[in-house]
Amino acid sequence: MQYLLLNKPYEVLTQFTDEHGRQTLKDFVPVPHVYPVGRLDFDSEGLVLLTDDKQLQHRLSDPKFKVEKTYWVQVEGVPTDQALDQLERGVLIQGKKTTPAQTRLLEEVALWERSKPIRFRANIPTTWVEVKISQGMNRQVRKMTAAVGYPTLRLVRVAIGPLRLEGLPPGQYRELTPHEVKQLKELAKPINTFQRPYKRR
């Protein structure tokens, strides 16, 4: 089995083919028969896990296992405590409330320069926020920050469960260590819901 961790650059599709000629995982991971666990938006960056372990892939992608994903989000403006509380309680997206998130403001963020600079307004400051969620709705983090009044300018996934992106440049990948693979399998272990049948006295 193969287990790879890629730092996906900006404007790269989380798939191996594209009929429109855009960059895909194939441009960065010359390894056959591995597939991404979940997706990361074209305009987002950061950690993508790839594997040929179909069982693990399915479990890590399944919302019922509640695998936590950590994002560093650069937003327009300075979020208030009230806005962060809203994100943590859950916000409505297309009539559906998101599950509780964890958030905190980041004072210093050391990241690579994006291939295309972000567009920001000179008279409005920007802020980095760490957001941890275990859901996987389409463009969820962007929609969450927009819902509380702070549009996302840049989004980087820095962790999936215990796996961290640290030290891996954009466009580069590495194999997981045996310890990391073990951690992932523990994370995606099915919960035993078997209960003894009730017996009347």
Q: Could you describe the 3D structure shown?
A:
One of its GO terms (molecular function) is catalytic activity, acting on RNA. It is an enzyme of class 5 (isomerase). This is Pseudouridine synthase. Helix content is 17%, strand content 27%. By secondary structure, the chain is of the alpha+beta class. The protein folds into two domains: 96 residues, Alpha-Beta Plaits; 92 residues, Alpha-L RNA-binding motif (Alpha-Beta Plaits, 2-Layer Sandwich), CATH 3.30.70. The strands form two sheets. Strands 1, 2, 3, 4, 7, 8, 9, 10 and 11 form a nine-stranded mixed beta sheet that branches. It has a two-stranded antiparallel sheet with strand order 5-6. Strand 2 and strand 3 form a beta hairpin. The longest helix is centred in the C-terminal third of the chain and has 10 residues.
Helix/strand layout:
Layout: E1 3-8, E2 35-36, E3 45-51, H1 54-61, E4 69-76, H2 81-89, E5 92-93, E6 96-97, E7 102-106, E8 126-133, H3 140-147, E9 152-160, E10 163-164, E11 173-175, H4 178-187
Key features of this structure:
PsdUridine_synth_RsuA/RluB/E/F, Pseudouridine synthase, RNA binding, 201 residues, Alpha-Beta Plaits, disordered C terminus, nine-stranded mixed β-sheet, pseudouridine synthase activity, 2 domains, alpha+beta, 27% strand
